[in-house]
């Protein structure tokens, strides 16, 4: 009887400690969201699908192939390369003659302008004073102190730099996806192992409970078996949410909207 009372006291202490950890987790969440403490604040528990033991995941290469087409940092790096390529084409255009067309129009009005003491009206002045010209200008580059050559060289160097940045961005993305994929695969394996452990612990606890009911074992052995089952169930729950979290990160890289 004393052993049972002692076990009850330990479990009550464990319950208080767990409740304190929940409150601390709420506090951390409030501070992360920069919200004041609210006693009525509750977290909705989403309905999650059951994880199948034979579940397979899309491989990291397929995720990377999709990610390089949707990730903004990759698109930005690609656009920088394209922009630099256009600048190179413009710089190379400096080698060739250029033909430009220009047009000018001029007019004026003076309210003091008179002929034979008669003021000339606006329409007549605008008609008589209009001047216009058209022109073509042909520029042939002969020597410009190597400015065109330097511009071309600088543009080529800029392209090489942006291409290197693009490759670096791809490498970083690939490494991130490989790491996330490995973490998700490890979480899946952990869930599968935890699920098997729970099944075994349930069966073991069933036998232990039968033995305890007929007096074949004492309360210490019974409580130990119960604790083992509780720990296995806790590990399974942690593994489940860990796996779901990791797969949502994979969805993020795969361009899939995150939802529960």
TrEMBL record:
GO terms for cellular component: cell outer membrane; efflux pump complex. GO terms for molecular function: efflux transmembrane transporter activity; porin activity. InterPro entries: OMP_efflux, TolC-like. SUPFAM superfamilies: Outer membrane efflux proteins (OEP) (SSF56954). Coiled coil: none annotated. Keywords: Cell outer membrane, Membrane, Transmembrane, Transmembrane beta strand, Transport. The keyword Ubl conjugation does not apply. Belongs to the outer membrane factor (OMF) (TC 1.B.17) family. This is TolC family protein. It comes from Draconibacterium halophilum.
């Amino acid at each position: 009887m004393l052993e049972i009372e002692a076990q009850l006291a330990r479990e009550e202490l464990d319950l208080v400690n767990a409740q304190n950890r929940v409150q601390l987790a709420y506090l951390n969440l409030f501070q992360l969201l920069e919200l004041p403490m609210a006693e009525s604040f509750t977290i909705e528990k989403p309905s999650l699908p059951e994880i199948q033991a034979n579940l397979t995941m899309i491989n990291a290469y397929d995720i990377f192939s999709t990610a390089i087409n949707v990730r903004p940092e990759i698109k930005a790096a690609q656009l920088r390369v394209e922009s630099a390529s256009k600048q190179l084409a413009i710089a190379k255009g400096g080698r060739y003659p250029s033909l430009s067309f220009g047009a000018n129009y001029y007019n004026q009005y003076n309210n003091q302008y008179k002929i034979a003491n008669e003021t000339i009206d606006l329409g007549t002045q605008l008609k008589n004073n209009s001047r216009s010209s058209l022109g073509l200008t042909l520029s042939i580059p002969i020597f410009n102190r190597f400015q065109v050559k330097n511009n071309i060289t600088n543009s080529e160097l800029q392209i090489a730099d942006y291409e290197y940045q693009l490759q670096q961005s791809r490498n970083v993305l690939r490494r991130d996806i490989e790491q996330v994929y490995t973490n998700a695969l490890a979480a899946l394996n952990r869930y599968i192992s935890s699920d098997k452990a729970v099944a075994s612990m349930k069966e073991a606890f069933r036998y232990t409970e039968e033995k305890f009911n007929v007096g074949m074992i004492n309360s210490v052995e019974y409580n130990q078996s119960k604790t083992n089952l509780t720990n296995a169930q806790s590990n399974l729950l942690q593994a489940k949410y860990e796996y779901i979290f990791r797969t949502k990160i994979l969805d993020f890289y795969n361009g899939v909207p995150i939802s529960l």
